[in-house]
Amino acid sequence: MKKNLPLIVAFASGLLILIAGFIPHKPFGMLEETLTNWFMIISSFAILLGQISLIQANVTRVAHRSPNWQYYLAGLISFAGMVVFGLLWGMEKTPGILGHGEGISQNLGSKPFDYIFDYIYMPLSATMFSLLAFYIASAAYRAFIIRNFESNLLMITAVIVMLGRTSFATWITSWIPDSWGILQLPRLTDFIMQYPNTAAQRAILISAALGVVGSSLRIILGIERSYLGGGK
Amino acid sequence: MKADRTLIERRIVFLVLALAVALPLIFPLGLRTKGTPLTKKAYDLVDQTPTGSVVILSFDYDPSTVTELQPMAQAILEHAWKKGHKVIATAMWPQGSQMADMAFENVQAKLGQKEYGRDYINLGYKVGGMVVIQGMGRNFKTVFPKDTSGLNYEDIPLLKTVKSLRDIKYVVSLSAGDPGLKDWVLTAHDKYGVSVAGGTTAVSAPGFLPYVNDQKQLYGLMGGLKAAAEYELLMEYEGPASLNMNPQSVAHVLILVLIAIGNIKAWRKRKAALKSGEVANG
Prior knowledge:
The structure holds two protein chains of two kinds. Chain A is mainly α. The two termini of chain A are 18 Å apart. By secondary structure, chain B is α/β, with parallel strands linked by helices. Chain B has one domain: Rossmann fold, CATH 3.40.50. Chain B is built from nine helices and six strands. In chain B, strands 3-2-1-4-5-6 form a six-stranded parallel sheet. In chain B, helix 3 packs across helix 4. Chains A and B meet through helix 2, helix 5, helix 6, helix 7 and helix 8 of A and helix 1, helix 5, helix 8 and helix 9 of B.
């Protein structure tokens, strides 16, 4: 029963949604609406589950003094801090347990939760993403080497597209007459993106869609059971 | 010894890149970018929509991609407000709601105060991606019974005429991944026939190009900071995206130079190896 019940639920839900896609009338339309509402509720619980899992994983590492346990502790303290500030004084428009915290907001310029979000979380998050540029630059220098025909082709395309995406592009090829306009870097970049790239992307999309259909059918029919957990 | 050399080389690359980004920020080069048809299409969608229309800006990103997507969001919001559109902000990412608040605040600082609840509303984040959009297509109120400040749906004047997605004139999704633009295209456009335009990070834009087709699944597509600068250009002002295009352009050129240096080095190495092989073979 433990194994069969989830399989029956998956089969019935999958089949209902599938039928509702073709017959969006009563009772299928109504059932689809109910199922999708359930999905949103279940997804909300997934957030809670994620938070519990985060706390458990980090507490265990700190308790066992795992390598770099200090970072996990910092993560836990940050998590707790945001929860406490959010609960006590709320966010921009919403009050917390202690109301809007006018006094503290006056000193900081905004509520503690918003202050931390604007001046700590946001710059840190953007910085982490920006660090990618340094790794890309370093990798480009060390690894983007012409070795054969394919890598040569990739290199030429990369140079055209990268240069075409800069503000220098117009200036570099502005001397090319309009009758040869396709050779102007911005237009050449657009051509590469619009034709060879789109053709390849479309092929990838169609293959991926067929793959999704295949794996969805396997789940509905109970052939694919990895989502139940416990190995195969 | 070789490891030391690699480490030093990497540090030099990092230092040069830092300078390449910092110097054009301090001393702007005054470079101007050229518009592309994809950005123009997105601009036209906003421009040709009648005054008083209710539209959705979906903030499907978080602070990590704020540099690319926030200027885009602000330029579109400014355009929509200038055209007299009433803007509903939604978010498929948890922190998208704060990104929306930031955009509303910055554009109001430029255009003057707008009335919350009449000119714009922030409905906040809802978990579920595509399923949330499907829910909005059936009944907006069941998905968003309240806004982020706790106002009830029926007490918000802007939402009086909105029963489902079909009452929305267009959707612009600023998207950094999944859930995001793809879900809006497949649901809001393909299922409910709402015009959808999008803005994405430069790295994910090529993947969305197949949706810009004759069926207008995607009405226009803005990819990265360059597209944001193009939108600002179409709006006839130089905003953060136009200014940030300077360091980005210099960084791109620097990366190309680094690729060239790396290849020259590899070629010389191969040549030396070939020569030493010939010597060894007599």
